[in-house]
Specification:
Length: about 250
């Protein structure tokens, strides 16, 4: 018999999936309107914020990028161009309908370097190996995740040594006084955090050079994963699963 909390998580995950599948039908037309009414992105439009976020993330040609909670792919044209010519993007979302619409956009825009798959943010390690990506992005996903802190841990685990984590979420300092959002960020407890709490959380996961950028009601967090070093203090190369397996086989001969 599975623990009660696992059954509860599964039930809530199914509820969220159905909700996002339904919302996906009106997302592209309705979401920018909601954002504008709340003043969530300050002076930036929905598209401008997505582009600004990718720019702050510092995505470079040739990098491998994971986009978590990708929605209908609002930033994917920008991401695709940023990693060209040899880079790649993997985009994940809990909603099949969001992914379907994102694929349609990618096909229309001829974005050949983006792959899509369904995945839950708090279970990313079930889908990807540790240290798989140069950059892991999550634009505005944390506020709607079932387990924001666990999701952040999962995202951090997938960033390579020397890689980057870029996350945008609601700015608790700003939302505490917002008439429409102050209750959302307070209840239930443990879902929304202040900047200094995010700094501690990210640092504990092995990141430094942590930067914060404010835009409207949003807080953008940019952090670099500490590079692994060898005994001489020199940068140690990443060891892929294939290399680790080969090294293990060599030792047993």
């Amino acid at each position: 018999m599975k623990p009660l909390f696992e059954e509860k998580d599964r039930f809530m995950s199914n509820v969220l999936t159905h909700a996002w599948n339904y919302y996906a039908r009106i997302y592209d037309g309705f979401q920018p309107v909601v954002i504008r009414l709340l003043g969530a992105f300050g002076e930036l439009t929905y598209e401008e914020f997505e582009e600004h976020f990718v720019e702050l993330a510092g995505v470079k040609p040739g990098q491998s990028v994971l986009d978590v909670a990708c929605g209908t792919g609002a930033s994917h044209e920008t991401l695709s161009r940023a990693v060209e010519p040899k880079g790649s993007v993997v985009a994940v979302d809990i909603s099949d309908e969001m992914l379907r619409r994102a694929r349609q956009k990618a096909k229309r825009l001829k974005l050949a370097n983006i792959r899509y798959r369904r995945a839950e943010a708090d279970k990313l390690s079930q889908y990807f190996k540790e240290s798989s990506f140069d950059v892991v992005l999550c634009c505005n996903g944390l506020p709607v995740f079932l387990n924001p802190e666990r999701s952040l841990t999962e995202m951090a685990r997938l960033v390579r040594s020397g890689g980057r984590l870029a996350v945008s979420t609601l700015n608790r300092e700003k939302c505490d006084s917002h008439p429409m959002l102050r209750w959302k960020v307070r209840y239930p407890p443990g879902r929304f955090f202040y900047a200094h709490e995010y700094r501690e959380m990210v640092a504990e996961k092995g990141f430094d050079s942590i930067q914060f950028h404010e835009e409207g009601l949003m807080l953008i967090i940019i952090a670099d994963k500490k590079r692994k070093t060898d005994r001489n203090g020199e940068p140690a190369p990443e060891r892929t699963a294939r290399k680790r397996k080969r090294a293990s086989r060599t030792r047993t001969v």
